[in-house]
Amino acid sequence: MYKPGLTIWYNVSNLERTISFYTEGLGFALDYQDEASRIAIITTNTKDCCIGFAEAETVVPMTSSTVFEVHDIEQAVSELKTRGVTFTGEIETIPDFVKLATFNDPDGHAFELSQTLA
Question: In the beta sheet, which residues pair with residue 50?
Fold first, then answer.
């Protein structure tokens, strides 16, 4: 019934700033942009996963977070910091399970990097 793939949508206050953060900051690719509708879709490095954005007057950051799996969290955090991404706190380790690093996009939406330890 379902096709493979996942698209996550966020409202944002400034579409150009958002596109810059996700392409230049996180290294993802702009897949689609409609200036008239003020929407854009970013293709992530995760197979069949896209993030869509719609410019809105009011933006309420979500209380949940989107998590991206990485092979080496220390290397990923270091690289993203050189691109201007600011992390909230240090890398958190849950022994024998996972390492996590949290950051927010320009509108305050929470994201995490995750490295599985098991």
Answer: 7, 43
